[in-house]
Fold this protein.
Amino acid sequence: MRRACLLSVLCLLLSAWSAVAADLALNAQPKVVPAVAFSDRDGHPLGLDAFKGKVVVLDYWATWCAPCRVEFPRLDALQGRLADKGAVVVAVSLDRGGMRVIDRFYDEMHVAHLAKYHDADGSGARAFGIFGMPTTVVIDKKGREVARVEGAIAWDSPDVVAVLERLVAAD
């Protein structure tokens, strides 16, 4: 019975993943980005100013979020692909269990390229008006929100990578 239930959930997740949008749509007008703070792996506070001049793919996620788990390997691959091109994926966990659960998740998912960030009190997510996970905000080199994705997408798809590469190439 338990195995059948787990199989049903897995099938539901896989069917939902196939329905995920393949394209990243840019906002008609860039939006002002709120000042947010989160911490790095060592607990040091930082904000988006630490990534000034780069295209930032700011992803709010949690270890218990099923769509986050599906999309995370793709975000990791995206970071590996774009790191030396002037873009950075900033994956900010909203887990209440802190770095201990984030470390375990990164180990389990074999994350190779993403740094660890944590928004312990959720203030950054609230400042962005984020209500569900994953939610990803794409920020251009001038520090403006140019796209927002609520839910998982294929971050390593050629269409999405092309949009991000155009943002990196823009002045």
Remarks:
- The chain has a mean pLDDT of 87.
- Helices lie at 2-18, 66-82, 99-109, 123-127, 158-169.
- Strands lie at 31-32, 37-40, 45-47, 55-61, 87-93, 117-118, 135-139, 144-150.
